[in-house]
Fold this protein.
Amino acid sequence: MQEEKGTISIHTENIFPVIKKFLYSDNEIFLRELVSNAVDASQKIKRLASLGQYSGEVGDLTIDVKLDETAKTITISDHGIGMTAEEIKKYINQIAFSGATEFMEKFKEANDANEIIGRFGLGFYSAFMVADQVEINSLSYQEGAEPAHWTCDGSTTYEINEGTRTTRGTDVILHINEESAEFLNKSRIQEILNKYAKFLPVPIRFGTKTESEPDGEDADGKPKYKTVEKDNIINITNPAWTKAPSELTDQDYLDFYHELYPHSMDEPLFWIHLNVDYPFNLTGILYFPKIKNELEIQRNKIKLYSRQVFITDEVKDIVPEFLMLLQGVIDSPDIPLNVSRSFLQADSNVKKINNYITKKVADKLQEIFKADRKGFEEKWNDIGLFIKYGMLTDEKFAEKANDFCLLKDVDAAYYTMKEFYEKVKDIQVDKDGNIVYLYTNDQSQQDSFISGAKAKGYDVLVLDGPLDVHFAGYLEQKGGEKVQLKRVDSDVIEKLIPKDEQLTLNLSEEESKKASEIFDKAISRNDMKVEVDALSESDLPVSVTLDEFMRRMKDMAKTGGGMGFYGNLPDNYKVTVNGNHPLVKRIIESSDEDGEKLAKQAFDLALLSRGLLTGPELTAFVKRSVDLI
C-alpha cells in the first residue's frame, strides 16, 4: 500500500477542542463508544455470514480491552468485519457532521453545550477526549483485502499506510494524554466496563482474573482448592430482558435482580416484563421493591439501555415520576439521544413509551389484584405508597388504580374505594346527606376517639402514610358522591357526623356559663377555646380537638402542599366540655378551688389522651393524680 497523507474533511481545526470542552465531564464515555463500535463490527460479520455474504469462519468474536500502563495505551480489539483503507477514509476521515460550515456557525451562536453535542455525531472521535494520538489497525473481511493503518494526533491531519494486522477485525489504539492519566488505572477501566458493557451482546474480555476452584481432598478428607487464572469476561451477553417471558423462571428474574443490585438485601415483591415492537421497540423488566412507609423517591434505580449498551440511570422523561420508585431495566433503540447519549431529546416516542409503561404497570397491578386478592392485601403495606403516589400524580394511572387501591380500617380489614363507600353510605351519613369517612393517622394516640366512633357503629380508616393528607383530598373528589373525610379526633363524634336528633343539655344557662368560666380559668391558654355542649353521659367529660380544615391545611404545608400560609398559623384547639357528664355537674357544685382543680385534672386527662401532655405538665398531672388518690 502506498503511504498517504491527507486532511480530515471537517474544514476546521476547532473540532477537537469542541469535543474535549463540551464532553469533558463525560470523558469516560470514550470507552463505551469504542467498545460499542467493536460490538457493531462483530455483529455485522455474524449477519453477513447468516446471509451467505461471508463464507469464512466467523470464529471467536470476543472483544479484548487491553491496558498497557508502561506504554500509556488502551487498545480495543475486535474480530468483526474490519475496514479497508478506502473505508477508513470514508468512515473515519469524513466526520458525519451535517455540513462543517453549518456546524461551526451553530457552534459560534449556541450557548448550550448540550444543544451542540445533541445535533452532531461523535462516535469514534470521543477517543480524542482522552488521547493525544489514536491509531487504527484493520483488516477487512473482504477477500484479497490489504491491512490498513491510520493514525491521527488530534489535529486535522492524518496518515494512512499499510497495516500489520493479519486476521480479520480492527484494533483501535489510544495513546492516553497526561490529563487523562486516571484511565491508565486497571480498576478505573474495570469500573467503566462494568457500568457500560455489563450486558453487551458480544463477550468483552479485560485481561484475566484469579479464582480458586476445588482441587480434590487432602489426607484428612477436607476439600482442597487451587488458584487458577481465567479470562476476565465483563459481560452477560444474553440478559434476562432480551429473552421471552416463557423462557424465564421466577428464579431467573430474582437472579437477574441481584445482578442489577448486588447489594440489595430484599427480594422484589413482583415484576413486569416489558416487550413491545409497535409503534416503537421496547423491552425491559421493572421490579417492585419493598417500599418503606416514608416518601423516599429513590432515583437512579431504573437503568436505560439502547441495544444492551448502558446509557443512563436518569430516566425521568421516559418513566412517569411515580414509577421512579421502581427498579429494573428499560432497553429501546427508539429513544432519541444526543451524541454523548447522556441526554434525552424531545420526541413523540418518549411520550408514547411513558404512556405505555404507565398502562403496563396499571394492568399488571390489576391482574395481580384479581388473581390473588389476599396476596395483594398482604403486599399493600409495601406498595400502597407507590400506588397512591401514582394516583395523585398521573390521571390515567388513577383511572385504573381506583379499582385496586385499597383502604385499610383500624381492624385491619381491606376495602376497595367502591366497597368502602357501599359499606358506610347508609350509616356514616350526616343530616345534610354527606357521607363521612372517619380516619386516624395514629391509632394508639387517638384510641379514645376511635373507641367513641366504633361505639356508634362507625368504621374508621387508617391513613397514616406520608401522602395520606393529600390522598384524603383525592378520596373526597373520587371516593364517591358527597364524600367528606374527617380525622376522628377533629371534633366530638356527635359533631363529626351530626344527625337530625339533638341531645338536650342538662345544665341551665347559668350552670353552663359557670362551667365555661371554671374551665377557662383552669386551662388559662390562649390557644384553647372552651365550649360546653350536650353529649352522651358515656362520652368523655372533656375532649380536645383540632378543626379538620385547619389541621389538614397545616399538615399539607408540612409536606410541601403549597399551603405555606397555613403552616405559619398557630394551632387553635377546641375544648369541648360534656355538659351531661356527672363530673361536670360535680365541678359546678364544688367550691371554686376544688372545682378548678377537678377541671384542670379533667382537661389534662383529655390532653393525655391526645398525646399533648408532656414534660413538666405531665409530671404535675401525675403528682395531682396521686394526691387525689
The chain has 20 helices and 22 strands. The two ends are 111 Å apart (CA to CA).
